[in-house]
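Milestone 3.1: sequence recovery, worked example.
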């Protein structure tokens, strides 16, 4: 469905009904945000699911989420574990403990996910900015997902400029192998 037809439907008028002015008036940010997920992203119902509701579906999803997960010999992360080289790897690093490196992948995953959950809880307890606007709950977690945060499993930095994958550095491949990890599955890749 085209945006024009969608807007006409929103205004309960048929397209071509001489309703151009009415359609232009209905062409609001809200109506575009309703149309885009529904008709261009195969995300039917997403607009309503994103409605702000305290304790809603997104909060539940975040409470049950993980930054990393290990199943048998497979490590799952959203963006990857490398940032161009072993010294910039997210593997074994947890933001709360920048000087500590976890050699055990399972211990690292558990600690990283505990850090994640503590910041989700902090966001739930303090969802808005402090009065002086210096902090809010979960702010460290928000920083962790930004592109300029080095060593995050959320941002993918596993490709060279031409789009080809960077081979895992030997030290990282060795650490994964020593921990019984044979595969790393990351999002947005074939």
């Amino acid at each position: 469905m085209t945006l024009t037809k969608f807007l006409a439907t929103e205004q309960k008028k048929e397209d071509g009904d001489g309703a151009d002015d009415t359609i232009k008036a209905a062409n609001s940010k809200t109506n575009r945000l309703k149309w885009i997920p529904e008709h261009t992203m195969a995300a039917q119902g997403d607009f309503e699911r994103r409605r702000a509701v305290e304790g809603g579906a997104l909060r539940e999803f975040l409470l049950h989420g993980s930054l990393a997960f290990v199943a048998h010999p497979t490590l799952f992360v959203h963006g990857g574990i490398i940032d161009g080289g072993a010294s910039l790897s997210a593997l074994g690093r947890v933001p709360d403990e920048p000087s500590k490196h976890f050699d055990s992948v399972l211990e690292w995953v558990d600690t990283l996910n505990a850090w994640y959950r503590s910041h989700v809880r902090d966001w739930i307890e303090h969802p808005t900015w402090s009065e002086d606007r210096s902090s809010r709950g979960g702010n460290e977690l928000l920083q962790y997902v930004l592109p300029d945060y080095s060593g995050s499993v959320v941002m993918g930095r596993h490709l060279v400029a031409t789009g080809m994958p960077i081979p895992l550095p030997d030290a990282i491949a060795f650490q994964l192998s020593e921990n019984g990890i044979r595969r790393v599955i990351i999002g947005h890749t074939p």
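The chain has a mean pLDDT of 84. The longest helix spans residues 105-125.
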